[in-house]
TrEMBL record:
<dbReference type="InterPro" id="IPR002491">
    <property type="entry name" value="ABC_transptr_periplasmic_BD"/>
</dbReference>
<dbReference type="InterPro" id="IPR050902">
    <property type="entry name" value="ABC_Transporter_SBP"/>
</dbReference>
<dbReference type="InterPro" id="IPR054828">
    <property type="entry name" value="Vit_B12_bind_prot"/>
</dbReference>
<keyword id="KW-0732">Signal</keyword>
<feature type="domain" description="Fe/B12 periplasmic-binding">
    <location>
        <begin position="39"/>
        <end position="283"/>
    </location>
</feature>
<dbReference type="GO" id="GO:0071281">
    <property type="term" value="P:cellular response to iron ion"/>
</dbReference>
<dbReference type="Pfam" id="PF01497">
    <property type="entry name" value="Peripla_BP_2"/>
</dbReference>
<feature type="signal peptide">
    <location>
        <begin position="1"/>
        <end position="18"/>
    </location>
</feature>
<protein>
    <submittedName>
        <fullName>Vitamin B12 transport system substrate-binding protein</fullName>
    </submittedName>
</protein>
Length: 293
């Protein structure tokens, strides 16, 4: 009888241990591991950065677009944002796969569920979301302490950034994410919110969709003091013929071709700081005192 009771207690203890490694992913699915993941495949650049920040040595495979930190360069590249090589993933023998939540990706990864390989779908948008992903992945990796430290620092850094620009003189901003067709962002996106947090006024803040199609007429009427492209500044060349635009008059056209601004990973606040720097530079140009006559 005593031996049977001991066996039951051992089983219960094992069940409790397994339950401690249980989290929800960004689709609301429960992801459970019997022990901390030791072999991780990351199928999106921000996931690669999240895992690398917590347990770089656990990464055994990444997607083709992952390029940071430099230490991941030699890892097998087994897919891209919309499709993957399932056979290559299985060959790496992962005990956790982290993927973007797109429909095409979910369809590609369906065979993994049948093989019992857990998949965590990740879709952070804001620094708070990134911090939350760090905490949940930290649990699955057995890196809770590191996750708490990094999540806390990221949130504190962003709070300090917002405080720095709170009350700053507003700057009218048009952010171009595509030239043909002309696309921008609304305040329904993190980039739109970031413009506001930097003290900017987004030309399409109130648009009812995340990535609205803009019109040149509306942009000209808005008279932006800053034109920003999420890419090379060459993409803004067409605006230079509109000499009456304040941004063109004062030379405030910038491209931010930096992954940190558009990749929701541990370096996201650094990326927002780049945007804030550009907005603040325009602020200084348009608020500096006029020279005395």
């Amino acid at each position: 009888m005593r031996n049977k009771l001991a066996a039951v207690l051992l089983l219960l203890a094992g069940a409790v241990q397994a339950a401690t490694l249980s989290v929800k992913d960004d689709l609301g699915n429960t992801v459970q591991l019997a022990q901390p993941a030791q072999r991780v495949v990351a199928l999106t650049p921000h996931a690669t950065e999240l895992v690398a920040a917590l347990a770089l040595q656990r990464l055994v495979g990444i997607d083709a677009a992952s390029n940071y930190p430099p230490a991941v360069a030699g890892l097998p590249k087994i897919g891209r944002f919309d499709t993957v090589n399932v056979e290559a993933i299985v060959a790496l023998k992962p005990d956790l796969v982290i993927a973007w939540e797109g429909t095409a990706m979910q369809r590609s990864l369906q065979p993994l569920a049948r093989l019992g390989i857990p998949v965590f779908y990740s879709k952070p948008q804001t620094p708070a979301d990134v911090a939350d992903n760090l905490l949940r992945l930290g649990k699955l990796l057995g890196a809770d302490d590191a996750a708490r430290a990094q999540a806390g620092k990221l949130q504190a850094d962003y709070a300090a950034l917002k405080a720095r620009y709170r009350g700053a003189a507003p700057v009218r901003v048009f952010m171009q994410v595509n030239a043909q067709p002309l696309l921008t962002i609304s305040d329904l996106t993190f980039l739109g919110q970031a413009i506001k947090d930097c003290g900017g006024v987004n030309a399409y803040a109130a648009a009812g969709v995340t990535v609205p199609q803009a019109s040149a007429e509306a942009v000209l009427a808005f008279a932006p003091q800053l034109l920003v492209a999420t890419g090379k500044v060459d993409g803004l060349a067409g605006w230079r013929r509109h000499a009456a635009l304040p941004a063109v008059q004062k030379g405030q056209l910038y491209g931010i071709a930096d992954d940190r601004l558009v990749r929701p990973g541990p370096r996201l606040v650094q990326g927002v700081q780049l945007l804030c720097d550009r907005i603040d530079a325009a602020r200084q140009v348009f608020t500096q005192p006029k020279p005395a006559k």
